[in-house]
Amino acid sequence: MTDDQWVKLELDVASYDADVFEEYVTRCRSAGIRLTTLADLGDTPEHRRALYELNKECSADIPERGEFFTYEEFVERRFAVPSYDPRGVVIALDGDTWVGLAATSRHDDFLFNEMTGVRAPHRGRGISIAMKAYGMRFVRECGAKRVRTFHHPANASAISMNRRLGYVDARD
Predict the structure, then answer these.
(1) Cβ distance 139 to 18 under 8 Å?
(2) pLDDT digits (tens, 9 = 90+) for 1-22
(3) Which partner for 90 in 6, 36, 135, 140 could form a disulfide, CB atoms 3.0-4.6 Å apart?
(4) Beta partners for residue 37, in sequence order
(5) Cα–Cα–Cα angle for 27, 116, 135, nearest 5°?
(6) What is the mean pLDDT of residues 22-43?
(7) According to DSSP H, which parts of the chain are helical?
(8) What is the DSSP letter of 166?
């Protein structure tokens, strides 16, 4: 697939209405789902491994994803880069079980949604939107004006979720 075939989306942070999506965070909490960040949990080797396993499982549903990175490749691509900030990695927990992640990285003039995913048994409960809404705290802390992401065109659920949050087709 060529770069111009991906669905590239962008959120103007000033237009994001946090109040509309805070209900998803509240609903998750009421259902026993705790939202936190990797920074708050502790950016430890054990937590990084748990994040890898969760990301690997959730990535299996991405159209044409192919084989997932090895743990060493994941560390190199996600943690050992200047754009990594553990405050930008939102984790959804059901008890002690990691059920979802929404990772956002920092770049010079924007933030980038790396991955949002929820384990299959927990889907359909609004956890993805709740994690992205929770993650907007990080976006605001960074002072970002925009958040970008991209998706395979067949990943309709992810595209739809981002459009619901206010993402539009990116200009460039």
Answers:
(1) no
(2) 556 688 999 999 999 998 999 9
(3) 135
(4) 90
(5) 60
(6) 97
(7) 18-30, 38-41, 45-59, 71-74, 127-142, 156-165
(8) T
